[in-house]
Each structure stands twice: as C-alpha cells, then as structure tokens.
Amino acid sequence: MRICLLFEHKSTSTGRYIYVQPGRYLLGIQEKVIRQGFEHFTLTIPVLIYHGEQPWEVPPLREQYGEVSKELEGYIPHFDIVYVNVQALSDETIEQMHRFQLLRDVLMALKHARDEGYLGVYLRRWSMFVPEGADWEVLLHLFEVTFVYLQQSSTLSKEEVMNLIQTLPPPLERRAKTTYEQILEEGIEKGIEKALLAFIRKNPDWSDEQLAAVFEVSLDIVQKVRRLLLSSK
Length: 233
Description:
The protein is mainly α. The chain folds into two domains: about 1-90; about 90-233, no CATH class. It is about 55% helix and about 10% strand. Strands 1-2-3 form a three-stranded parallel beta sheet. Strand 1 (about 5-10), helix 1 and strand 2 form a beta-alpha-beta unit. The protein is globular. The two termini are about 35 Å apart.
C-alpha cells in the first residue's frame, strides 16, 4: 500500500473552506496515480498544521451536509483531517524532536511567527546547539528557509540582525549574511523564492502542494521556481 501525507498549513481559520483546498489536492493526486498507471489509488492522509491565535472549530466534513437520510449517506464525500495545533504544543515538547530537525524547526518557527524577538532566540540557539557530525549542506538549507520565514515577522533593525548573525558558526554566518542582504535588496518574496529553489534542489520529490503549504506561498510561485530550476539545467 502506498501512503502519502498531505500537509496543509494555515495561520488563520478558513472555516469549512478547509475541506475545499485539500479536496482539490486529493483529486490531483488521484489523477497523477492514474497517469502513472498504478493499480490502486494512493492512500492520502491530510494533515492540518495550524498556528492561528483563535481555536479551530470546524465540524467534520460529513456534518457539513446537515441531516441526511440513511439511504443517502453513501453519497456524501468524506475524508478526515489530522489536526495539529502548534500553539497548543509546548516549546519543550517540540525541542524533544531531536531526530526530526526539519519538523522541529518548522514547528518552532510557526509557533513563534508573531513573536518579534524570536528571530534573535533562533539565531542564538543555532550558535550554541549545532548538531555534532551534522550534514552542513542540509543544515544550511534548513537554516535559510527558517531564517527567511522568521525575518518577515521581525522588527529588528538591520544592525541588530547583523550583530546576531555574527554570533553564528562560520558556515551559517556566511549563508545568513548572503540571505539577509538578498532579502533587503530584492524583498521578502525573492528571498523566499531563493530559499525555495535551494530546497527543491535538495528535495526534488516534494510535491508542489507540499512546498506551497510549508513555505506558505501560492502554487504559482512554486511552479515558477520549478521552471527556473529546469531552465538552469
């Protein structure tokens, strides 16, 4: 059996519209499976990663149709969504995900996205706790993605950010300076595109939908970056 995890990231509640977007993705996955000639559909599990301030209170999809007679229940389209409320997770719980550094850093960044001072905390933590024997190329991509995301919500001055960057280990310091200077020159969107391009090079099997959810950008931007990558080969 083939199993796929479909990650959807939301910072605000979209109400019952949450069932529309993953529903489109599920149909897209089915179409891809048919084109690839597999005998069975891929079992796809939608996972909602939510870090909004308000509770997410949306009844299951089956209940959105109101009262339906037993004879018609079989015609109701239905899928469950695994709900992960990042705000409900303690920092200690997230930090204990030692074997899943990408997930750990993404969850921490999402939880503290509205915390203007967290960029400094994040950079200091990197300077103190670089994993022993780490794959630096993977770490650099992970660092760059998280840095770009957090920088969007930070109100630190350029001087303050540069002072924090200087506390990082040399490989991270160089990457952070380059990334930050590019953000200042080209804007946040270009910085995200650069980080996205680097991430796709390292993780070519990620779907457009997964990348759009993790980077919180539109599918158009993901596809644009993919075209740039193809044209550079």
